[in-house]
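Methods — Computational structure assignment.
A single polypeptide chain was analysed. Its primary sequence is given first, followed by the predicted tertiary structure written as structure tokens.
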Amino acid sequence: MDYTGKVAWITGASSGIGAALARELAARGARVVLSGRNEARLTEVAADCGETLILAFDVRDDAALADATAAAIAWKGGVDIAFANAGISQRSRALKTDMQVYRDIIAVDLTAQIAFSQGLIGHMAERGSGALGFISSIAGKVGVPMRTAYCAAKFGLAGYADALRGELSQTGVSVHTIYPGSVATNVSRNALTAEGAARGRSDKAIDEGIPADVAARTMLDGIAAGTREIIVAEGGEKAMGELRRTPDALLDQVAAMVANGYMEKLEQN
């Protein structure tokens, strides 16, 4: 994929991986749509990104999402690439974690990202082109202690992406699931505690993780190469992700089922 002139929409674009993706996409010639809740921080990111559109809203607000989707499509006549990136992590034992923490994390990291995608897939399929990037996590491949809610959401997002990839395999729309390990962002500082408060401090592994700009380049290189599962990790985290990588042959098998009329047969029964 050549990103020049493409319209790329990113949720969670005000910081971390989202902001790094925006800057790298702009450097590769894309026009970026930036979304998040903090308009001031989105404006700071936009200053580095050339031609941009800022759409600030809460991804859990369905009406605001619908309005933003219409605005993003109308801006340049279509959205070519979309990154479902908004999310929040967790640092608490399951035995101590309030159920509302599970609801809040799944609402942001899973349900809202599905809604974001659902608003675009019809548009992309009708055009016969497009790419969807879902930011899961190594914790969406391997269950990691102190992150039960986060793992549930990220595993769920990967499952949705896998099924969606099969369904869209004959439309010209590609689906890419991205599995970052430790990337140097504020993810652990903003993670929720057992009571649902922001943790307020970082992890050594995160602080010493892959720089966000390096991670963004790896992600975009993977999409450009057509890689369906993109693991962005080092050391033991990379090894864990690779052990759980879905074989391309299995992904091809699902696409072949769709090509052979699997969905049509189910709809007729």
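Note: The chain has a mean pLDDT of 97.
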